[in-house]
Specification:
With 373 residues, this protein is mainly alpha-helical. 55% of the residues lie in helices and 2% in strands. It has 18 helices and four strands. It has helices at residues 7-13, 24-28, 53-73, 79-105, 113-126, 131-143, 158-162, 172-180, 184-188, 190-197, 199-219, 223-246, 267-272, 279-284, 299-309, 321-331, 354-357, 363-372, and strands spanning 19-20, 110-111, 313-314, 318-319. It has a two-stranded antiparallel ribbon. A two-stranded antiparallel sheet has the order 2-3. Bound molecules: zinc ion (2 copies). One zinc ion is lined by residues 101, 105-106, 138, 142, 282, 286. InterPro entries: Acyl-CoA_DS, FA_desaturase_dom. Pfam families: FA_desaturase. One of its GO terms (molecular function) is stearoyl-CoA 9-desaturase activity. This is Fatty acid desaturase domain-containing protein.
C-alpha cells in the first residue's frame, strides 16, 4: 500500500528540522531501509496459516463466558466495586500506554526507578504479554507496518489485526524480523528484566488476585461478583481496547500527517485506549511522547504530565511544530485543520468542519483561516 515511510526519512527530507530532545542522528537510527513491504495485491499470499487451537478456544471461550457471566451478575455490582474496576482498568491501561508502549518501546521519555516499578506493576495488571514480547512485537510492527513482517498486519483484515493474530502461528517473516530486532535496552533494564522473568506470577497477582481480592476483603463484595467483574470483564475490555489500536486505528479515520500509510486518526479508539487512537500521527512521529499532535482525548498524556511534575518522568521527546508542518504539507491527506489547506484539492471549507476545528484551540483556528484565505 505504501512506500517505506519512516519518521526518520521524513526527518531527513525536512532539512533543518528535528524532533525536540531527539538528535537527528538518534532519530535517523530508527530508519528501516530494507523493510520488506509488499503491495496490496500480495495480501493473501501467505502459506503459514496454522491456527493455534489452544489459543483460539481459550480466547473464544473466555469472551463468551465473560459476556454471559457479566450479564448474570450485572445487577449485583455495587457502586464501590464498579468504581474499583474502572480504577483497575485505568491502571492497567496506563501500564500499557504510558509504560510498555511510550516508555519501553519508543523511549519517548525517561522514567525514574520508582516510576518504572509503578509502570511495570500497572502493565502486569493489564494481563498482557511479557514486556519483552510486547516491545519486540511493537517495534517490528512500526518498522514493517502493513507488510508480512507486521505481527498484526491490517491487510489481512479487521479480525486478524484485532485478535486473530494471537490465534495463529506467526508469519515466518514476523519471526525472522523479530529475532533480530534490538532488545538490548529492555534486557539491561532491571525492572523490565524482573517482569520478563516473573511474568506469570506477576500477572496472576496483579491481574487477578489483587483486583478480585480487594473488594472482597475491604468492603465485603461477593467473591463471584468480584471475580466476574474484575477478573473477567475488566480484563476483557482492557484487552479489546488495546487491540482496537491495531485494528480500528489502522482502518478507520483520516490521515492528516501521512496519507500513504494505513494508520489513521481515530477519536473513539483514543477515548477507550487512553490517547492511543491518534495513530496516523504516532506512526509518523513514533518518538513523540504525546503519541498525538494535540493533548485532546489523551488521558495518558495528562497522567504523564502529573509524573513529570513530581519528577518521576523526564526528558520528554516531541516533534517540533515546524517538522509536523513540513511533513503534513508534504504527505498529509489535506484534512489537517491548520496545514491541510496547503494541499490544493482540500478546500478552506474544511476549516468549518466542527469535528476538525474541535481539535484546534483558540487563535489557531483564526490564524489558519487567514493563512488559507
Ligand atoms: Zn500501529
Ligand atoms: Zn507505537
Amino acid at each position: 500500500m505504501a512506500p517505506n515511510t519512516t519518521a526518520a526519512s521524513k526527518e531527513a527530507e525536512c532539512v533543518g528540522e528535528s524532533a525536540d530532545g531527539a538528535p537527528a542522528t538518534a532519530v535517523a537510527s530508527q530508519a528501516a531501509p530494507e523493510a520488506p513491504r509488499r503491495v496490496w495485491v500480495d495480501k493473501y499470499n501467505y502459506t503459514g496459516k496454522e491456527i493455534i487451537w489452544l489459543n483460539t478456544i481459550a480466547i473464544v471461550l473466555f469472551h463468551v463466558l465473560t459476556v454471559v457471566l457479566t450479564l448474570y451478575v450485572i445487577r449485583d455490582i455495587t457502586v464501590l466495586t464498579g468504581l474499583w474496576s474502572v480504577f483497575v482498568g485505568l491502571a492497567g491501561g496506563f501500564g500499557v500506554t504510558g509504560g510498555v508502549h511510550r516508555m519501553w518501546t519508543h523511549r519517548s521519555y525517561q522514567a525514574t526507578f520508582p516510576m518504572r516499578v509503578l509502570l511495570m506493576l500497572c502493565f502486569a495488571t493489564s494481563g498482557q504479554n511479557s514486556i519483552f514480547d510486547w516491545v519486540r512485537d511493537h517495534r517490528v510492527h512500526h518498522k514493517y507496518s502493513e507488510s508480512d513482517a507486521d505481527p498484526h498486519d491490517v491487510r489481512r483484515g479487521f479480525f486478524f489485526s484485532h485478535v486473530g493474530w494471537l490465534m495463529m502461528r506467526k508469519h515466518p517473516e514476523v519471526r525472522r524480523r523479530g529475532a533480530v530486532v534490538d532488545m538490548s535496552d529492555i534486557l539491561q533494564d532491571p525492572v523490565a528484566a524482573f517482569q520478563i522473568k516473573y511474568h506469570l506470577p506477576l500477572k496472576i497477582l496483579m491481574c487477578l488476585v489483587i483486583p478480585v481480592g480487594v473488594p472482597v476483603l475491604l468492603w465485603g463484595e461477593n467473591f463471584f461478583v468480584s471475580f466476574v467483574l474484575l477478573g473477567m470483564a475488566r480484563y476483557m475490555f482492557g484487552l479489546n481496547f488495546t487491540w482496537l489500536v491495531n485494528s480500528a486505528a489502522h482502518m478507520f479515520g483520516n490521515k492528516p500527517f501521512d496519507n500513504r500509510i494505513a494508520s489513521a486518526e481515530n477519536r473513539i479508539v483514543s477515548v477507550v485506549a487512553m490517547g492511543e487512537g491518534w495513530h496516523n500521527y504516532h506512526h509518523v512521529f513514533p518518538w513523540d511522547y504525546k503519541a498525538a499532535e494535540l493533548p485532546d482525548t489523551n488521558l495518558t498524556l495528562h497522567i504523564l504530565h502529573f509524573f513529570k511534575r513530581i519528577g518521576w518522568a523526564y526528558e520528554f521527546k516531541s516533534a517540533s511544530q515546524s517538522l509536523v508542518e513540513c511533513v503534513t504539507k508534504r504527505y498529509g491527506d489535506g484534512s489537517h485543520p491548520k496545514y491541510g489547506c496547503a494541499t490544493p484539492e482540500i478546500p478552506i471549507e474544511a476549516l468549518d468542519n466542527p469535528e476538525i476545528v474541535d481539535r484546534l484551540y483558540g487563535d489557531e483556528v483564526e490564524e489558519a483561516k487567514e493563512k488559507c484565505a
